[in-house]
Amino acid sequence: MKRLLVLVVALWVTAFARDRFDAFIDDTTLPVLVHATSPEVRDRNGALLRAYTIDDGLWRMNVSSDQVDPLFFKMLFAYEDKRFHSHKGVDLRATARAAGQALRNGHVVSGASTLTMQVARLLEDGTTGQWSGKLRQMRLALALERQLTKDEIMALYLRLAPYGGNVEGLRAASLIWLGKEPTRLTPAEAALLVALPQAPESRRPDRYPDAARVARNRVLMRMANAGVIPMAAAQSDRLDPAPLGRKQMPQLAPHMADRAIALGPGRHDLTLDRSLQESLEDLARRYMSGRDEHLSVALILADHKSGEILASVGSKDYTDMIGQGFVDMTQAQRSPGSTLKPLVYGLAFDRGLAHPETLILDTPVQFGTYAPQNFDGAYRGELPVRRALQLSLNIPVIRLTEALGPAHLMAALERAGIEPGLQGGAPGLALALGGVGVTLEEMVQLYAALARGGEALPLRWRADQYGGEDAARRILSPASAWQVGNILADVAPPASAGPPGRVAYKTGTSYGHRDAWALGWTGRHVAGVWIGRPDGTPVPGAFGGALASPLLFEVLGRAEARLEPLAPPPPETLLVSRAQLPEPLQRFGPREPVPTLQLTFPPDGALLTATGGGVPVKLRGGLPPYTLLADGAVLATGLRRPEFLAPVLGPGFTTLSVIDAQGASGRVSIELR
């Protein structure tokens, strides 16, 4: 009876102690379990484009178990905590073994810290050298095991384990020390990631590569002896050198990434394609190498069917201070030069004002005080609208704009999703020649509309942005859009054009050579290129055709090994010769009288000194091309500019005559000495 009473009391004391112990553990206040992680920007397939440190300058990146090579977990558990999945936070067998070894040897031989205890230490930023710290970790580890699952505890370890310097967590360590995601690891790489958290500062690969290598090899041999990896693999990987320094975190699409991060922290998934983005950033750097260091470049490549931006390069180098590489030139408002002309022609086709085969005058004209001139100062008389667009002549497009009304052109731009920067009051005729501020992204969106058969769809760069057909707006009929593309596809490509196939493209140069543009599309992609100085100062000699168009074709070539064919004409497209057109469409507007040809210089009877360069001749009126004669002999034909040099004939009296395309003539008699 007495023994039974003692047994009952013992059981009661044990139960009371256990209840008190359970209450002690349950009363443990858990530290913060949610920690800030590096904001990330990823591409359409989830690949990392760019990441940012958190506020205290740490690299701490979110990672899930399925993003980690299973080999890492096998090695981690075998090396650090064999019974992780069975113990309740403290491994009593390991603790007893460590205590026995310490008593027998007089010093600590092996540790008994479980992974849960390591997480407890990391959560409280505690030490392991004092018994009080160790006991606190045990209590917190037991509490963690009661409130969290094993997977949740392991997630904390993967996120918080120290890896030297400002590197925390497995994924940040893998990217910085190995230059890769931890999804697939070699035995040597996995062993290094297991070894570093034990002594993160004294084994930092960038400072102590030998120590890192020794620690890694120790893990490799233990894993081989434990049967986790083959001995042959361990022996082979031991010969690999440890990383000698830090790898650079991915820094792709920096301008686009900054735009995403400005929306808020966390993970941002973009429509960009990492491989294309990396390829085009490299292309931009290579293309601009050796040019004026103050120049910048911007590129955009998009899928015109979906409206998704696949690559966006805001400058040649984000870190370049001289060229202001930090400025995202895809978003800067600049004058588009002649790149708005295709829209003018498309609107004219829709209004029934013209057809690609309609004849239009390229002769001097004045609208009030505005007298437009062609870029080269020459006039070409009457020519087809098709040819006028291909030659990018100013006077024909101004004639069409005047007939349309500049406000109609502005409304079309706004329907295309462009927010034009217009200084002053109402838009004028110069709008058609680039007298407005637009961004490269907006211009690519406009050209995507031309490629889509006249439907403007907002470009998308965020994966969660709304797209879809409901957002589309029609700015041109399918037939007019196709006619514009067909005309532009017949423009000769630059000499350095890449893969075979037709590209409908247009170049432009803004006033004062400040901006060089090239925009174009294939059956699948649309792309835009801008080159200039971010501060808006002139770039002498910069032309869109010479500077930007070769890069445009390289961009499209990087996207398509063979350019996808352009769309066929819609059934309603009027494909006829000029003679088959209705009479009002055969010639644009009323036939205007051509001003009488006048030879304004040299004046009749002038005495001039002969020079090696020739005699300057200036004309007014008439219809080019012009023919130049001296004393009845033909000196030159096919002259289209109203100013030119007549070859020197030697001293004496000479009669110069000029005849225009309609047979009108002018003549002067001069004396050369």
From TrEMBL:
Its EC number is 2.4.99.28. It catalyses: [GlcNAc-(1->4)-Mur2Ac(oyl-L-Ala-gamma-D-Glu-L-Lys-D-Ala-D-Ala)](n)-di-trans,octa-cis-undecaprenyl diphosphate + beta-D-GlcNAc-(1->4)-Mur2Ac(oyl-L-Ala-gamma-D-Glu-L-Lys-D-Ala-D-Ala)-di-trans,octa-cis-undecaprenyl diphosphate = [GlcNAc-(1->4)-Mur2Ac(oyl-L-Ala-gamma-D-Glu-L-Lys-D-Ala-D-Ala)](n+1)-di-trans,octa-cis-undecaprenyl diphosphate + di-trans,octa-cis-undecaprenyl diphosphate + H(+). GO terms for molecular function: carboxypeptidase activity; penicillin binding; peptidoglycan glycosyltransferase activity. Residues 1-17 form the signal peptide. GO terms for cellular component: outer membrane-bounded periplasmic space. Residues 299-511 form the Penicillin-binding protein transpeptidase domain. It comes from the Bacteria. Pathway: Cell wall biogenesis; peptidoglycan biosynthesis. The keyword Glycosyltransferase applies. Keywords: Carboxypeptidase, Glycosyltransferase, Hydrolase, Multifunctional enzyme, Protease, Signal, Transferase. Residues 56-223 form the Glycosyl transferase family domain. PANTHER family: BINDING PROTEIN TRANSPEPTIDASE, PUTATIVE-RELATED, PENICILLIN-BINDING PROTEIN 1C. In the N-terminal section; belongs to the glycosyltransferase 51 family. In the C-terminal section; belongs to the transpeptidase family. This is peptidoglycan glycosyltransferase. It comes from Antarctobacter heliothermus. The gene is pbpF.
